[in-house]
Design a protein that fits this description.
This protein is mostly helical. The chain has 3 domains: about 90 residues, no CATH class; about 80 residues; about 40 residues. About 75% of the residues lie in helices and about 0% in strands. It is built from 7 helices and no strands. Helix 2 packs across helix 3.
């Protein structure tokens, strides 16, 4: 209607659309439209029901003489203008120009610039990135993954296995007998004293001061 009968539309498509018969809306749409119409009618007849649901009190009477005559005047003059210019609203086989002509014409250089120089530059950059940047990055990522899996994780997992095996063997040393623990403490003290004496002779440390420090004299 706004762009003419054949404006920017194929004649075959337009003829097919004219010959196609419109169908009745489905039942669910009819029920929804009926409910919406009943709600509109109910709100128009009983506006106080809607006012009671509003968060603030409303002091407004819609059906006064001034409101009714003003609304009817607007509707009547709108209908009058519609019927007076009804023939002018009949669509014609023409193309209607509007302000969109300016930006449609002005967009052609922009589209050419986007489709040719920008698109070619983007293709060159993409090819360069895929060949000269992504391949070395993928190689570095694979190398880092191998180092993390075999070197770092291997060292940590190997250390954990050594500790677990050592703990498994040392677990058998805990017999629960007090005399065994006392013997171990004595052997530890003797070993500590022997190491101290050996280091003292080797480094020239005053052993007398060390023994007096250990005995408290």
């Amino acid at each position: 209607m706004f762009f003419g009968k054949g404006a920017a539309v194929d004649t075959n498509i337009h003829a097919a659309c004219n010959n196609k018969k419109s169908l009745e809306p489905p039942l669910n749409m009819l029920i929804a439209m009926t409910l919406a119409a009943l709600l509109c009618l109910g709100i128009g007849v009983f506006p106080n029901v809607l006012y009671a649901l509003l968060p603030h009190p409303v002091d407004f009477v819609p059906y006064t003489a001034a409101h009714v005559t003003g609304s009817l005047s607007i509707l009547l003059f709108t209908a009058l203008g519609f019927f007076l210019f009804l023939k002018s609203l009949d669509p014609e086989n023409t193309i209607s120009l509007d302000t969109d002509w300016f930006y449609r014409r002005g967009a052609r250089p922009f589209l050419w610039f986007a489709h040719h120089p920008i698109a070619r530059f983007e293709a060159v950059v993409s090819d360069l990135a895929n060949t000269a940047v992504l391949r070395p990055l993928h190689a570095c990522a694979r190398l880092g993954l191998w180092i993390d899996t075999h070197v770092i994780d291997g060292a940590i997992n190997g250390l954990a296995r050594v500790i677990m095996r050592s703990a498994e063997k040392m677990r058998h040393l805990e017999t629960g007998v007090v005399s065994h623990y006392a013997l171990g403490m004595c052997l530890g003290i003797i070993l500590s004293v022997a190491v101290y004496v050996a280091l003292g002779y080797g480094l020239g440390i005053d052993l007398e001061f060390g023994f007096s420090f250990l005995t408290g004299n």
